[in-house]
Amino acid sequence: MIPETARIGSVPYLNAVPLTCGLEEGCRFLPPSTLAVELRAGRLEAALLSVTEALFAPGYPIVDGVAIASDGPVASVFLAHQDPLDERLTEVHLDPASCTSVNLLRVLLAARGLSPRFSPLADYDRERMPRNVLLIGDPAIRFSLGPHPHRLWDLGAAWKEWTGLPFVYAVWAVGESAATPALADRLRQARVLGLESMPHWVEHRPEFTREFRQSYLGGHIRYGLGDAEKAGIERFRQALDTHIEPRRPTVVPRYF
Prior knowledge:
By secondary structure, this protein is α/β, with parallel strands linked by helices. 38% of the residues lie in helices and 21% in strands. The longest helix has 17 residues, at 227-243. It is globular, with a radius of gyration of 18 Å.
């Protein structure tokens, strides 16, 4: 039987809309960092979790075939910076919502030999935006589409340039006791329905412009989890083990 009553959580961002098609009524929409807390506490059985949380966690099974990924520019995860990407970059403010984006930035900067000081971002007030700030999700898109004095370093593009691989931002992570074939199939079917409904999302979602929705949902964001994406996850796992201090042990993903 399909587990219609499973407790599922997703993110309140445009890029996740196709993955919750048909699940909206029973789904909780929370920031990525909050989803991780709720899944650890057992208040969710499955969550569209930042991939870093899945790699740092004690082995959440990951639903095969489904992800939020990019194979180049992502358009919604970037460092907005006024200082050059060299030793003059001494401080970066961080949107604390996503563990993955923060660690992706750390890895990419470390690969350039850079280790700036990281500070929390107080709010998204455009008038008070710091000189160098990591922005993610829909707030990042709104910032990029408006007037600003920053340059945008797209982290999906930077990862692709460095590794030649796609980058996976989020996966369906499932609590061990809830990792049944029925639940995995339900989440994969939601993806199928979502992709079939893509023309509807492009035409009728209220976020941003139709042109942006077309380029974003129809191009920048990828929703599959195949061999290339898994290779990207493994490369990221190795980079975390190499570059992130203090060290936190990662786990090899288990797909089902």
